[in-house]
Specification:
Largest sheet: 5 strands, parallel
Structural class: alpha/beta
CATH class of the largest domain: Alpha Beta
Shape: globular
Number of helices: 11
Radius of gyration: 19 Å
Order of helices and strands: HEHEHEHEHEHEEHEHHEHH
Number of strands: 9
Strand content: 5-15%
CATH superfamily of the largest domain: Aspartate/ornithine carbamoyltransferase
Length: 312
């Protein structure tokens, strides 16, 4: 596979999109395209990380992201160690740093971590000397999700400079929203967020995005719409009267798309609350590239793992 072994990322770890340059994004996407070719071969495995051991540390529930990372690691021939906080010594009072240091003592070469506390990956990177990939830290960032979203849109629209991308839903509690905004802006896209006023953070305009409270206006404006789920598990208070009312005003359904009357690319990072932020009719329609996102997620994570492992 003709991957440029001289090309390097500017950072040792992937803690957030904010740490990546536009050149880093270009390199990741080029490498992703090459690994996507691998995934479409009869034999979907390459020996690129054959001598490495990678620990997946998930301190928060996950299905898609954990499986995607594990599959990416195995496709690269790495040895994989899966860690679950529910069955660990953390339940006995052990600290995060002690847990990770114990795992590293077993000669682990790279760490993929999801944690409910924002900044947990940054904290860890200041104390251990192996590459860390942030698989989601609280409501902060989810960089690989943003990379696969941007890559998936780019496959459909080409160069994202000047393209209009909407992010719709629970912006306040979403780590996907922040990472997507940072990634899309670095690629030159125009970004608009849309949702109830209570779910739009006050600082959002400082990120260079526009704000809309009208779903129909936003869909008329954009070329692609990334629909975020309502994150009830992160909401300590009620931000809208009911799920039914949210679905009425901000749910993406066939009726509102008919009013818009143009071909829109529809994304959703999953899991989907069908009938709330998006109907099954839209999620399963030809306009939706949700399954493309899942497929691209493995290739993007292979690219990130490979490039970080190549750092001297």
């Amino acid at each position: 596979m003709p991957i440029d072994k001289e090309a390097q990322l500017s950072t040792k770890s992937l803690l957030g999109i904010k740490d990546l340059t536009k050149q880093d994004l270009k390199l990741i996407f080029q490498t992703t395209e090459q690994f996507k070719e691998v995934l479409n071969r009869p034999i979907k495995k390459v020996p690129s990380l054959r001598d490495l051991t990678i620990a997946n540390l998930f301190f928060e529930n996950s299905t898609r992201t954990r499986i995607s990372f594990e599959l990416a690691e195995k496709r690269l021939s790495a040895d994989v160690v899966n860690f679950s906080a529910a069955s660990s010594s953390l339940k006995k009072g052990e600290t995060l740093l002690d847990t990770v240091n114990n795992i590293l003592s077993m000669k682990v070469d790279m760490v993929v971590m999801r944690h409910p506390a924002p900044g947990a990956c940054v904290f860890l990177s200041n104390h251990i000397n192996v590459p860390i990939i942030n698989a989601g830290d609280g409501t902060h960032e989810h960089p690989t999700q943003a990379l696969l979203d941007a890559f998936s849109i780019q496959e459909k629209l080409g160069d994202l400079a000047g393209k209009k991308i909407a992010i719709i839903g629970d912006i306040l509690h979403s780590r996907v929203a922040l990472s997507n905004i940072l990634c899309l802006k670095k690629l030159g896209a125009e970004v608009e967020v849309c949702g109830p006023p209570t779910l739009i953070p006050n600082y959002i305009s400082s990120l260079g995005v526009s704000v809309s409270y009208s779903l129909e206006n936003t869909l008329n404006w954009c070329d692609a719409a990334n629909i975020l789920r309502i994150q009830l598990e992160r909401q300590s208070t009620r931000y809208f009267p009911s799920l039914r009312e949210y679905a009425t005003y901000y749910g993406v359904n066939k009726q509102v798309l008919t009013k818009v009357n143009k071909d829109l690319i529809i994304l959703h990072p999953g899991p989907i609350n069908r009938g709330v932020e998006i109907t099954s009719e839209v999620a399963d329609s030809p306009n939706a590239i949700i399954l493309d996102q899942v497929e691209n997620g493995v290739a993007v994570r292979m690219a990130v793992l490979y490039l970080l492992a190549s750092k001297p």
